[in-house]
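Thread amino acids onto this structure.
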């Protein structure tokens, strides 16, 4: 049987995927192998996913961003679902979770996998419940059947809600918002109806065997994540985390790659605590967090409330951030929501990478600052995280081509443009002399480097479209 990435890494082999990742991340191939072998990083790469451009999730690498897509009972056509995948990849998602619960799930999933250059994740429990008719009618046979089918289809990672146990349920009774994870509420409902232990926990070793066969990566679900800051870091959340630590080690024993999901809603001063605790309990397995939202008061702006928590989590060591859109808690996101959510999360991920001094991360900032200070508007747009947004905001007030050379914008106007005033002063001979004498201008000009590539490279993409990566538009001129 072919080995999984972690088995190959433990055997000392550097796989093709590891070489590709080393190239994307600016790292030595041996470093990639070591991280995978130790379980501190995962390469979600089902061996049946032919269109995949391999990537890595681990705290020593660039922080990754996931986007959720999927149909519902009311919206279910193949073209729309493919368009959602295209949008998510175009705006920079590093992985995409297909959380569809509508009709035609198999065909949509297969088409996603066929076309996606990024790993595809799923929650097989949703399809199993749909087939069973209700949570209470789920059986372990059906769960295993659905998991195996999705593994054979090429799903790269699956959320498995095996950590919530019957003994945890009483711990949620005093919560303000109960159990908010969909998978968690389904498993709790099953355990209450049957008076038995979580079936996913009971057949965990069998799931491991399926994952090892196809090299599917675990994303161990946090069924008891807090749904409000009032419930953050409570006994229920941390009791489940202890089980996730046990399941992490059992997955590794089977030669399966594991990452662990995290909250949710957590106030700012407790975000780092969550990351540090998960890293300790789960022996450094990558932490994949949803936000967290740092306050509950801003429906309509939860891409912001959660990106604040995500940035803190990234700095503290979270490896992947699951995006939240402005529609969180309110409705199904549309394309503009996906764009806003991904922008917020790519900012959070990049801010974390800069804070953690990831190789090359700040080069992007420095190049944009240089373009800004020299009024190179076209270069600013090209380097911007969202070039179309930057260009359109600028052109709303100064649309003419001549303003692409202007030494001001409409914010302060020509007379009060501080950067122009500063440059003029610098150009003034007397000021130059004064600066030299007082050593005010001692710091050297920043070296202009290319923005970092690796996380969002445009090469290797399939026919569905290209992710935007600053620096790719003029690649042929470089
Ligand atoms: S006008 Fe103000 S905002 Fe615009 S470039 Fe000058 S300093 Fe910056």
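Threaded sequence (478 positions):
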């Amino acid at each position: 049987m072919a080995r999984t990435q972690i088995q190959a890494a433990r055997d000392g082999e550097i796989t093709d995927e590891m070489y590709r990742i080393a190239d994307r991340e600016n790292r030595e191939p041996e470093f990639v192998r070591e991280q995978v072998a130790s379980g501190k990083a995962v390469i979600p790469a089902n061996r049946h996913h032919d269109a995949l451009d391999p990537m890595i999730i681990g705290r020593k690498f660039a922080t990754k961003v996931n986007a959720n897509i999927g149909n519902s009972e009311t919206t279910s056509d193949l073209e729309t679902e493919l368009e959602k995948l295209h949008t998510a990849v175009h705006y920079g998602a590093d992985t995409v979770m297909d959380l569809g619960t509508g009709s035609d799930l198999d065909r949509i999933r297969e088409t996603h996998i066929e076309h996606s250059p990024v790993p595809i994740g799923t929650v097989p429990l949703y399809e199993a419940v749909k087939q069973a008719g209700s949570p209470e009618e789920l059986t372990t046979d059906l769960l295993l059947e659905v998991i195996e089918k999705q593994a054979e289809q090429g799903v790269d990672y699956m959320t498995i809600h095996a950590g919530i146990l019957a003994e945890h349920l009483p711990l949620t009774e005093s919560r303000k918002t109960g159990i908010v994870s969909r998978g968690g509420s389904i498993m709790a409902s099953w355990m209450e109806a049957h008076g038995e232990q979580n079936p996913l926990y009971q057949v965990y070793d069998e799931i491991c065997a399926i994952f090892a066969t196809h090299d599917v990566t675990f994303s161990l679900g946090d069924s008891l994540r807090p749904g409000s800051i009032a419930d953050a870091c409570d006994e229920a959340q941390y009791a489940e985390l202890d089980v996730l630590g046990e399941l992490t080690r059992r997955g590794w024993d089977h030669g399966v790659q594991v990452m662990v999901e995290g909250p949710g809603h957590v106030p700012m001063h407790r975000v780092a605590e969550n990351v540090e605790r998960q890293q300790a309990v789960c022996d450094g397995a990558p932490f994949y967090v949803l936000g967290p939202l740092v306050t509950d008061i801003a429906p309509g702006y939860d891409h912001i409330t959660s990106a604040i928590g995500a940035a803190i989590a990234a700095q503290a060591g979270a490896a992947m951030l699951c995006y939240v859109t402005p529609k969180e808690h309110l409705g199904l996101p549309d394309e503009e929501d996906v764009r806003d959510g991904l922008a917020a999360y790519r900012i959070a991920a990049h801010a974390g990478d800069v804070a953690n001094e990831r190789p090359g991360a700040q080069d992007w900032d420095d190049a944009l600052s240089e373009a800004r200070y020299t009024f190179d508007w076209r270069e600013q747009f090209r380097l911007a995280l969202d070039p179309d947004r930057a260009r359109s905001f600028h052109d709303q007030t100064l649309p003419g081509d001549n303003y692409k050379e202007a030494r001001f914008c409409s914010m302060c106007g020509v007379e009060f443009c501080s950067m122009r005033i500063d440059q003029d002063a610098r150009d003034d001979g007397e000021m130059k002399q004064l600066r030299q004498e007082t050593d005010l201008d001692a710091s050297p000009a920043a070296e202009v480097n290319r923005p970092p590539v690796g996380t969002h490279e445009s090469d290797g993409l399939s026919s569905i479209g290209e992710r935007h990566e600053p620096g790719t538009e003029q690649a042929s001129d470089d």
